Each structure stands twice: as structure tokens, then as C-alpha cells.
Amino acid sequence: MKHVSFYTDLAFCVVFLPLMIFIFPVERWWGTYPVFFSLFVGWLYVTYFLYKYLITPGLFQGGRRRFRAMTVMAVSLLVTFLFSGYEINSPFYHIRQQQPELMPYPIWGVRQNQQAVWLHYIVVVIFCFAVGMLTEAWRQRLAREEVEYERNRAELALYKAQINPHFLFNTLNTLYGLLITHSDKTEATLERFINLTKYMYNNANREFIPLAEEVEYIDEYMALQALRLNEFAEVSFVPQVEDGAMPVPPMLLITFVENAFKYGISSNEPCFIRIRLQQCGNTLRFEVENSVFEREGKTSKRMGIENCCRRLSLLYPDRHTLEVGKDGEVFRVRLEIQRV
């Protein structure tokens, strides 16, 4: 924006105003009234900068700034009026006449010169108002975008804060189950839990992380959950990643994995969880299929998935597709994301 303002000032000072003076018969004053001509042109430049940087911005604001802007505007009108009056009443007005006696200048000539002064002033003011209003509109647009950006960041932070306790409660439930059964897997489970917790808090304030880190996190999480599974469960995770540096939001994909383990595992019935991740070029595809065993009845809202959908709409408003639904006894999630 600063460069645009500079180029606008340069275009006005070097091109617009000199061209306007050349088009209208003001340059003729140079030979007869060089001092007046120089002062008037200088005043036009002063008028431009006053209106652009003081008067026009002040009019969009309230209080003292608006009063100050209106005061400066009144002063500029008064100075312009004095310029027009000086041109008409100047004792040197007829210096170019060859007659010894001074003849009254025709009325139409007086009006023409007076109108020229006001015409230049009005054109400069209109130009400044146009530039000022465009600048103000752009400033307000940037302000709205900044407010929206900060609101989205706060909302994303809220959803991430909701995801972290969700992960902790699920994993602690797993640890509790192993402890009360005195399982020999407890030590390995605790170690994996510590690693996952470190990952979670190290990436809490990052907007994006490399895809390879997220894949490793999912793999660690599934290995931790597999420690409590029995022979009835079939669990698989197949990642195919071409570019592990592709940026993805942290703890986004894990939401669907947690949901699968929450509703797709049974201790006494055959069950399965199949996860596929494919990254090719700028596209990331993530698919989850799992058997369904409702834990909270048919009215369960699956808050984790709802939060994840909201995060996706904020981060990838036009660059993602998400299909979530139940097909008979199988719950499916299909997500496709385009690189940011």
C-alpha cells in the first residue's frame, strides 16, 4: 500500500497537475505574472497533500480529527479565494499592455481567470477525494480481513484446545484399563503415551507441520491403541507419501482415527479399522473405514468430527472435500485436501 501511495503522489506531481496546467490557459500567466504563477502552482501541490493526508482521512474519523480536517478545509478555501481575488485586483494585471494608460480589463477576462483558479482547485480536491476514498475503502477492507483472520485463529485455537483433552481422556482410559488388569503392556503403553503427549504440546502453537510428522504421530497412536486389542480386532494403516514436507494442520487427521477406535472396536465381536493415506503432488487423500459399535446410542454427536469439519472449513474453505457417513455396519470417512 505504501508503494501505491508513493506512485499516486508521483503521478499527480509529475504528470497530472503539469498536464492540467498545460491544457488550461494557466501557463500564459508565467510570462506576465511569474511570482503569482509560482505561488499558485505551489499552492495546488500543498492543497493536494493537505487533502490526501490530512483532510480526507480526518473526515472519515470523528472527534477532534474531523473538526481539524474541516478547519483546514475552510482555511484552504479562504486561501484559494485570496488567490482568485489577487489575480483580479493585482496592479500588475495589465503590465503587458502597450498603452500608457491602463484600460479596464474586460469582464469576461476577469471571470475567466477567476474561474481558472477555482477550476484547478476543484479538480485537485476531487482527485484527492477520489484517491482518499479508495484508500479508505482499501484500509477498511484490510481491517475487516485482519479481524476475520484473528477471529479464525481464535476459533482454531479453541478447536485445538478441545482436541487435546479428547486425546488425553481416551488415552488415559486405555492406561487405566491396562493398569487394573495388571497387563505387562503397561510400561510400553506409558512410554508411547509420553511420546505422544510431547508431540501434542510441541505442536500446539504451530499452524502447520510436515505431513511426515503427522503420519508418525498416527502410527504411534495406533501402536498404543493396539496394545489393548485382542484377536477380534483387525487394524491396518497404509501410508503412501511422496513428499513428507507437505504442510498439514497438526492433530487434524488423528480426530478421525480416534473416532474409529472409539466406535469401531469390540472386545468380544469381530471388528476392523482400515486407514489409508495417500499423498501425491498437491493432493492428500485420507480414508478411514471401521465397524460400528455405538457407545452412546444413536444420538451421539461425535463432537471431535464436528470440530474437525469446522477446522477444515476455516483452513481449506475451497480446497477440501469431506464425506462422512455410515453405510450399513461400516462407518466411512473420505477426506481430500489440496496443498495450501
What's the layout of helices and strands?
Layout: H1 2-23, H2 29-32, H3 34-59, H4 64-89, H5 107-180, H6 186-202, E1 209-210, H7 211-226, E2 233-241, E3 247-248, H8 254-263, E4 271-280, E5 283-291, H9 303-315, E6 320-327, E7 330-338
Parallel strand pairs: 2-4
Antiparallel strand pairs: 1-3, 4-5, 5-7, 6-7
Helix pairs in contact: 3-4, 3-5, 4-5, 5-6, 5-9, 6-7
Question: How would you describe the overall organization of this protein?
Answer:
The protein has 340 residues and is α+β, with helices and mostly antiparallel strands. It contains 9 helices and 7 strands, in the order ααααααβαββαββαββ. It has helices at residues 2-23, 29-32, 34-59, 64-89, 107-180, 186-202, 211-226, 254-263, 303-315; strands spanning 209-210, 233-241, 247-248, 271-280, 283-291, 320-327, 330-338. Helix 4 packs antiparallel against helix 5 (107-180) and helix 6 (186-202) runs antiparallel to helix 7 (211-226). The model is unreliable at 87-110 (pLDDT under 50).
